[in-house]
């Protein structure tokens, strides 16, 4: 066992979690005492940028249906982008109002607003703050100089190799306690709201001794005395279940898969899939119009409820323990944390972008300043774990230790992607510069924390898109590895049926665009990419057409269609676990191409079953690739049949 100073390990959180409740403005009180208060937390600071979070706490007996928060900022401080509220600025007064979708603050609950901004080295705490015309600190409007009492009964409630869980008794204050800060070696390492009397400090080292205290702060910014300290040593890292072969096995876990598909993080464990993986990519994080990573709970923008707000039952939870309302982290993020405790060698990376959320990447990568701002905000949110408070969960450092790196999924720099994307000719060079910025900031974070962070990317199958968007010789030194699209070669956006994931060109394909995995991999090899740095993407879903005549071969392949086949969630696409049980279809396959398809005389599905999945994996190994990637793991069945076929081929 080794004792190690905590300061280097948690210095990032100490800097990030400076909780600064809003003090009473030096202007005369304009309203009587209120049960509604507003507190502020500077969650992170870098160079000339910072991230802030403002929380409205409603301690009244009635819901706050509408609200207006007004404040000024210290000289040299400004806000560049805000979320979860509408921001306007006039004459130096910043005004926050509910967003377009509304934001009712329930009785006895809170609502958080986040922003990124610029500072000049001084304070960023809002000044002269009013909510609906009353002081944000609540109370009578008279200055409050009395701090809260010290919390009592600080107790260690649990330890793992990388985390310590704590609980304590409630503090009291003459006006209102706004929240609690957990400290170690004099620095703040976590902060939670007033209703939360427990917290987990993550991102720690195995078999290492730590000391923690807790203190309360009130709505006027007064900090009370620290509690008595507790000493604790993290557990040994036993390595968990033995890992499979050295080949990389990467699976995308989709944020939205917990809904209609009902695929939870726990399914990774119960199906036996987790022990067969080296990496999970969590899809996706979004980038806003200001070019910054952000968290929201609005359709089309973000799903904070799925990420860290939803409470899972004991039956749904990885460790069989139900979530509690008082937890500062719930949802998929907490389940991933639990999964990593069982499989400590499993890496979890946060994937940014995707087909729909690549909209603002070109703007974010445009200038050195915009690149620095995007990267800093993404690291702050996901790697430092400074989540905005949502429905009682989140807060500074709440997600620290969950993610091991960033996966970039910009679809696509310099070429057509989603119709709403901004595309510029200079995207190619700007993507290289963005990757370099990520690598430099990740290296700095590694030096600061003593923990390594990965950088990966999902890259296209189309050689034309490679040439338009990617300087492979300059990119590869900054990536740990890349995942290469091995699917979506064809689909129902085309009128003619075809393979979506063939290893080799099909001699029957006379179309204008003949794609194959062999062609794609060779394109990267020709551009100097080491095959061991490439991870081949495999689809756990199929593409389908209907209105398909048999054709001369009687199998429906390379025939015109009348449109996409009906799908469970979207026409033209279906999960493997659904396709495999479709009645009335004949199975066709081409073993040389590693392809399979189903045809019933009218509808054709091109897909991969256990046999073709094994063929593709074997091809990747035989060609010296670094491993395989799955999009997406929720397409597998409850027994993990497809990932088992992949695993068998890799052994």
TrEMBL record:
Source organism superkingdom: Bacteria
InterPro entries on file: CBD2, CBM2/CBM3_carb-bd_dom_sf, CBM2_carb-bd_dom_sf, Chitinase_II/V-like_cat, Chitinase_insertion_sf, FN3_dom, FN3_sf, GH
PROSITE patterns: CBM2, FN3, GH18_1, GH18_2
Catalytic activity: Random endo-hydrolysis of N-acetyl-beta-D-glucosaminide (1->4)-beta-linkages in chitin and chitodextrins
The protein's name in its UniProt record: chitinase
Gene name of the record: chtA
Enzyme Commission numbers on file: 3.2.1.14
Native species: Nocardiopsis alba (strain ATCC BAA-2165 / BE74)
Residues of the GH18 domain: 247-651
Pfam families: CBM_2 (PF00553), fn3 (PF00041), Glyco_hydro_18 (PF00704)
CBM2 domain location: 25-139
SMART domains the record matches: CBD_II, FN3, Glyco_18
GO biological process, one term: polysaccharide catabolic process
Signal peptide positions on this chain: 1-31
């Amino acid at each position: 066992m080794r004792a190690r100073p905590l300061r280097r390990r948690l210095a990032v959180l100490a800097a990030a979690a400076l909780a600064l409740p809003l003090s009473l403005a030096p202007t005369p009180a304009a309203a009587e005492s209120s049960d509604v208060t507003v507190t502020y937390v500077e969650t992170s600071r870098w160079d000339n940028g910072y991230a802030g979070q403002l929380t409205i706490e409603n301690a009244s007996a009635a819901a706050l249906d509408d609200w207006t928060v007004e404040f000024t900022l210290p000289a040299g401080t400004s806000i560049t982008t805000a979320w979860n509220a509408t921001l306007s600025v006039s004459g130096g007064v910043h005004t926050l109002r509910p967003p377009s979708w509304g934001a009712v603050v329930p009785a006895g609950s809170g609502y958080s607003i986040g922003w990124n901004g610029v500072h000049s080295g001084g304070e960023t705490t809002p000044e002269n703050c009013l909510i609906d015309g009353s002081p944000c600190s609540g109370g009578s409007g008279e200055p409050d100089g009395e701090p809260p009492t010290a919390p009592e009964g600080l107790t260690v409630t649990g330890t793992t190799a990388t985390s310590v869980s704590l609980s304590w008794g409630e503090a009291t204050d003459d006006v209102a306690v706004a929240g609690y800060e957990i400290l170690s070696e004099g620095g703040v390492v976590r902060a939670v709201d007033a209703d939360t009397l427990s917290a987990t400090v993550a991102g720690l080292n195995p078999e290492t001794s730590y000391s923690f205290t807790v203190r309360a702060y009130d709505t006027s910014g007064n900090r009370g005395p620290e509690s008595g300290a507790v000493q604790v040593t993290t557990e040994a890292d036993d390595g968990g279940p033995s890992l499979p072969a050295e080949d990389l096995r990467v699976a995308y876990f989709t944020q939205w898969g917990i809904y209609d598909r009902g695929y939870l993080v726990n399914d990774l464990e119960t199906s036996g899939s987790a022990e067969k993986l080296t990496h999970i990519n969590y899809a996706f994080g979004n980038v806003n119009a200001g070019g910054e990573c952000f968290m929201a709970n609005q359709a089309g923008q973000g799903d904070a409820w799925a990420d860290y707000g939803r409470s899972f039952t004991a039956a749904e939870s990885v460790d069989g323990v139900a979530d509690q309302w008082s937890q500062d982290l719930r949802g998929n993020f907490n389940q991933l944390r639990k999964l990593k405790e069982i499989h400590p060698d499993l890496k979890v990376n946060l994937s940014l972008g995707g087909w729909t959320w690549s909209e603002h990447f070109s703007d974010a990568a445009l200038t050195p300043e915009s690149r620095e701002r995007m990267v800093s905000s993404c690291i702050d949110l996901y790697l430092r774990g400074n989540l905005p408070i949502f429905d009682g969960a989140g807060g500074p450092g709440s997600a620290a230790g969950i993610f091991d790196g960033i996966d970039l999924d910009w679809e696509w720099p310099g070429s057509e992607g989603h119709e709403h994307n901004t595309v510029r000719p200079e995207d190619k060079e700007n993507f290289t510069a963005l990757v370099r910025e990520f690598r430099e900031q990740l290296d700095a974070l590694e030096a600061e924390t003593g923990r390594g962070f990965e950088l990966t990317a999902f890259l296209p199958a189309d050689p034309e898109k490679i040439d338009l968007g990617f300087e492979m010789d300059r990119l590869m030194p900054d990536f740990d590895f890349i995942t290469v699209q091995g699917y979506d070669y064809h689909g129902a956006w085309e009128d003619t049926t075809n393979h979506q994931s063939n290893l080799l060109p099909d001699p029957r394909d006379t179309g204008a665009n003949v794609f194959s995995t062999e062609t794609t991999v060779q394109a990267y090899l020709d551009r100097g990419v080491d095959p061991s740095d490439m991870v081949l993407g495999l689809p756990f879903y199929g593409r389908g057409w209907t209105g398909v005549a048999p054709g001369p071969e009687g199998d429906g392949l390379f025939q015109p269609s009348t449109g996409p086949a009906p799908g469970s969630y979207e026409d033209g696409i279906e999960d493997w676990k659904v396709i495999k049980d479709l009645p009335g279809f004949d199975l066709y396959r081409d073993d040389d191409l590693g392809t399979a398809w189903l045809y019933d005389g009218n509808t054709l599905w091109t897909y991969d079953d256990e046999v073709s999945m094994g063929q593709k994996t074997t091809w990747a190994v035989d060609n010296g690739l670094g491993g395989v990637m799955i999009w997406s793991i929720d397409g597998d069945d409850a027994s993990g049949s497809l990932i088992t076929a992949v695993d068998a081929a890799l052994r």
